[in-house]
Structures are given as C-alpha cells and as structure tokens.
Design goal:
It holds the Pfam family Arg_tRNA_synt_N. Keywords: Aminoacyl-tRNA synthetase, ATP-binding, Cytoplasm, Ligase, Nucleotide-binding, Protein biosynthesis. It is an enzyme of class 6 (ligase). The protein has about 575 residues and is α/β, with parallel strands linked by helices. About 55% of the residues lie in helices and about 10% in strands. The chain has helices at about 5-20, 45-50, 55-65, 85-100, 130-145, 165-175, 175-185, 190-200, 205-220, 220-245, 260, 265-275, 315-325, 340-355, 390-405, 410-430, 445, 455-470, 490-495, 500-510, 515-535, 545-565, and strands at about 30-35, 40, 70-75, 80-85, 115, 150-155, 280, 285, 300-305, 330-340, 365-370, 370-375, 440. It has a four-stranded antiparallel beta sheet. A four-stranded parallel beta sheet has the order 6-5-10-11, with helices on both faces. A three-stranded antiparallel beta sheet has the order 7-8-9. It is globular and about 85 Å long.
Length: about 575
C-alpha cells in the first residue's frame, strides 16, 4: 500500500511529462487535502506562466493525460485539479495495510548509523524540568530511527567532570560515604551541591581542599577516582529511577559523559593547532570559523583551550564529534539540546568541517529544544524561583491522573498502573505535540484532560476501540474481514490511515515528532466521528457490516498504538 499523496504526485508528474515534455516531470504537483474532493493539485496555477498558457488550459491538458487514473479528476475554477480516489482503490489499499505487519512503514536502504545525543543532565545537580524535553524528544527520535531500520547509538552526555567535583568529593568525605550515597540516591543532588557550595564560599580551608581535589581528580589519582565513582554511581542510580518512571530507553550503556572525553582533550588541541585550524589569540587556543562575528564585527572565537590552560565545552564537543564520526562511524548525528546553544553548535560544526573531522558525508544537526514556560509566560520554576525537580513534576502528573480515574472501580494495583500510564502520556504527549524548537506552557490541568489534543485523549481513543472488541467477544488480531468503506465516516478514516507509512518516514527524516502527534490526533478525531455515525456492534447491525467495521477498528487501533509507541507514549488496556 502507498500513501495516496505519493501515488497522486507520481501520477500527476507522469501526466506533466506526457503533456508538456520530460523537463516538467519533476515539478511539484502541489497536492493538498481538499474540502471539495480528496485532494487538490494546484500545479497548473504555478506552471501556466512558464508555459504561457492559461491555468485552466494547463489543468485540462493534465486531466487528459490521467485517463487511467483510479478515480476522478475535475478541473475547478481558474485551474485547480480536484482529485477523488475511487472507493475500490482506497478499500484495496486499506486491506493491504491491515495485512501488513508494518502498516505500510518502510525501512531505510541503506540503513544509517544515527548517533543521538540527548537527555544529558548535570551530575553535580538534580535532574530538573529543563531535562524533560531533551529526554522525551531524543527518545522519540531514537525509537523512530530504529523502527525504520537505522542503527541508533544513544549518547547520554552527562555533565560528570570539571571543577565542581572537587568540592563535591570533599563534601562527600565530610558527611561520609553512606550519608552521601543515601542523599544522592534519594534525588537530593541539588541540596548536596548547595551544601558543598556554601562551604566552598564560606570556608577557606574547605576551598583549599576542594581545589587540591580537582588537581588529584584530573591527574587520575586512584583514591580520588574511587570517590568520584561513588558519587557518580549513586547519582546515576537516581537518574535511572527518573528514566524508569518516564519510560525512556536510555541505559547505563548509553552514558558517554564529559569524563569519557577527558583523555582526548590534549590531542584535540594539539591536532587542531598543528593543522592550523586553531590559533593562539590572547593566550587562548581558538578556532575562528568563517562567518561568525561578534557585536563589534570582529571574528568570533570558539575557545578550544583557555588562557589558563583549562578546557571548556567546545573542547569536549570537538573531541566528541571526531569520536562519533571516526570511532562510531556515524552517518548522522543529532544533538537534542536547548535553543540557547544554537550559536555554540553552529560554530562547533563549522570548526569540525574546517578541521576535516566532519565530512560532507556525515550530517550533524542541532535539534533545538524550546523552553518550558509556566502559566506566567516565564521559565518554569518554583515559587521560590528554583528549578522544579523533574521527579516531583512527574509524580504530580501521576497524582492528577489518579484523581481522574479514582471513581472507575479499579483495584488499587490496576489504578496505580493506569494512573502512571496516563500521567506519563499527559506529560510526554504535551511536549511532543508542539514543535520541538517552540516554547510551550506547562499546564497539568490541560495535559491530563481527556478532551482535545492530549495524551489521555489519545489513550482514550485506543481504550474505546478495545472496549468495542471486548463487547464483540473477539481479539483485534482476529478482525480480518475485508475492509469496506461504504459510509462517509468510514471512508474518511480509511483514507487518512493510508498516509501513516509515509508520514513516519517524513517525521523521522525531519526530526519532527509533532507531525506524528498531529496525524494521530486527526486519526482519533476521525475515529470519534466514525464511532458516532457507524455503529459496530449495536443491535440491528448485520454480521457482515459488523465484521467489516471491526476490521477498520483493528487497523485504526494498530496505527494509534504503533504511532504512540514510536513517540514513547504508553497505552493502557483500559482507562
């Protein structure tokens, strides 16, 4: 089965070549869904001037070359082509889709190695809401690429190295390892950091010890490294609790923190300097990628080594990009990182290209993540102005979801399971349904609603279909009758579902999971209309119609569940 718009594009392009010559075969037919037909092609309007003919004349010439078309083509107005596919064609494609385990979703040939850098919390502090979007969006992209057959290498670029770890290790020694581990495993990383910082700022002896500890850490002192591992292991165990609640696919094997690149930094600097890509400027080693200037119109430096000999984010990111291209053999690298880092990554990519470390055969892309806002339109924070802890926010979403279903008669274990699924769907879908580079307001009341474009509404759509099958007494997998799309609501739903495979491919290629959300929301909306207008198991529905509609329900359920799974949104059996 094929996406109708792809079929129409190919047919109209063939007609263009026959009508006006092969040089027009690659013209965009400008096919869009239409309220007057299934689709409308506006290519005659754009071609008319070039052909020096009226748009309507061009449209009629195209129509004449579509005599074998599986449907009807009518010229409308000044030259629009109104295209309606035949019911038989739509039904045939829907039947093939139902029989296809992949629902029309193809696989990439050849498969690519896609490195996805996402989540990346700072181990010196607690995970907060700022990490939510990078984690959710990155995980959905990883799921999408794997579904298309790409080899995905997840990279959780933890902030696990640097000068703060001197004071953190000294504070760990002061309070004792057991107390420190308990605090970190409980998700009190921010409190741990604040206590260490207060001592660093107010106690000269502690400050001296902390600075000395940084030196021993960077020199690889075994005892200091052991203490660093104690700190990191406890911190990662808490991160994993958050990932488990969120239902993301990151594991310890995916951790590739700043510490991993530490042994590579000296060579990174040496190689960049030796090649002439980096030069000394006011004591610092810098790359000046062409095209980047500051407010004073002077070339903007990417500082690879500071004047005091220290390294920064740019050093690590240059080492990382070389490692990902050379060692991981990446064909494509996605950096799922906040919008505010846009200039940094533009300069890193430019510098890596200049150094020859990022060849034209490898795509490096910054998947920009917009800010999460509170109801006041400002960065989402607590009333005291601090970042909201991510685990606290997730628990609140689960609590809100529990209230939503508390009167539905479920036993305690089932209610807990459903509340967790609904709470996570509310948070994750709200994030994914807006363009990843856009800001959005975090509003739990709206997110947990079972109406509108929300995660719970999508879950409710799947639960409604499963309820139909329970009442019918059969499994969705057994609904294999030929799909017949006799009623308008049936036809609208069936035609829409045919676009799923191509949509998934487009979403993956463009890193735009919000478009998949929009498709699924439209699916659920069309399902609702179908549910109201086309009874499936009510008294008076003949067995043949019942079986045909159950087959359409089964196809819709599979599309919804597959799409939501690709987004990382859980789907409970009941709501």
């Amino acid at each position: 089965m094929t996406d109708p718009q792809i079929v129409l594009t190919e047919r109209v392009q063939q007609a263009l070549a026959r009508a006006f010559g092969p040089e027009h075969a690659d013209a965009d037919p400008l096919i869009r869904p239409s309220q007057f037909a299934d689709f409308q092609a506006n290519v005659a309007m754009s071609l008319a001037k070039r052909l020096r003919r009226s748009p309507r004349e061009v449209a009629e010439a195209i129509t004449a070359e579509l005599s074998d078309f599986p449907g009807t083509v009518e010229v409308s107005g000044p030259g629009f082509l109104n295209i309606t596919l035949s019911d038989a064609w739509v039904e045939s494609e829907a039947r093939q889709m139902l029989a296809d385990p992949r629902l029309g979703v193809g696989t990439v040939t050849p498969a690519q190695t896609v490195v996805i850098d996402y989540s990346a919390p700072n181990a010196a502090k607690e995970m907060h809401v700022g990490h939510l979007r990078t984690t959710i969006v990155g995980d959905s992209l990883a799921r999408l690429h794997e579904h298309l057959g790409n080899k995905v290498i997840r990279q959780n670029h933890l902030g696990d190295w640097g000068t703060p770890f001197g004071m953190l290790i000294e504070h760990l020694l002061d309070i004792g390892e057991p107390a420190a581990v308990a605090q970190l495993e409980a998700g009190q990383g921010t409190e741990f950091y604040q206590a260490a910082r207060a001592k660093f700022d107010g106690d000269e002896a502690f400050k001296t010890r902390a600075r000395a500890r940084v030196s021993t850490l960077q020199s690889g002192d075994p005892d200091t490294l052991r203490l660093w591992h104690v700190f990191m292991d406890a911190t990662v165990r808490f991160f994993n609790k958050v990932y488990d609640v969120l239902g993301v696919t990151l594991t310890d094997a995916d951790i590739a923190g700043e510490s991993m690149y530490n042994p590579m930094l000296q060579k990174t600097c040496d190689d960049l300097e030796a090649s002439g890509t980096a030069v000394l400027s006011e004591g610092a080693l810098c790359v000046f990628p062409p095209g980047f200037t500051g407010s004073d119109d002077k070339p903007l430096p990417l500082i690879i080594r500071k004047s005091d000999g220290g390294y920064g984010y740019a050093t690590t990111d240059m080492a990382a990009i070389r490692y990902r291209v050379h060692d991981l053999k990446a064909d494509r690298i996605l950096y799922v990182v906040g919008n505010e880092q846009a200039l940094h990554f533009q300069m890193v990519f430019a510098a890596a290209k200049e150094a020859g470390w990022l060849p034209d055969t490898v795509q490096a892309e910054h998947v920009r993540i917009g800010m999460m806002l509170g109801n006041d339109g400002r960065r989402f924070k607590t009333r005291s102005g601090e970042s909201v802890k991510l685990m606290d926010l997730l628990q609140e979403a689960i609590d809100r979801a529990a209230k939503l279903i508390e009167d539905r008669g479920y036993d305690e274990a089932t209610q807990r399971e459903i509340a967790h699924a609904v709470g996570m769907a509310a948070v994750k879908y709200a994030d994914l349904s807006v363009s990843h580079d856009s800001e959005y307001v975090f509003d739990l009341d709206r997110m947990v609603a079972t109406t509108g474009n929300t995660g719970p509404y999508m879950q409710y759509a799947t639960a409604r279909i499963r309820s139909i099958f329970r009442r019918a007494g059969i499994s969705p997998a057994d609904a294999t009758a030929p799909i017949v799309l006799a009623a308008p609501a049936e036809r609208a739903l069936g035609l829409h579902l045919l676009g799923f495979g191509e949509l998934v491919a487009q979403v993956t290629a463009a890193s735009e999971p919000h478009r998949l959300c929009a498709f699924l929301f439209q699916t659920a909306s069309l399902l609702s209309t179908f549910y109201e207008e086309c009874p499936v198991i009510k008294e008076g529905v003949d067995p043949q119609t019942r079986d045909q509609r159950l087959a359409l329900c089964a196809l819709t359920l599979r599309v919804l569940e597959t799409g939501l799974d690709l987004l990382g949104v859980p789907v409970p059996e009941r709501m």
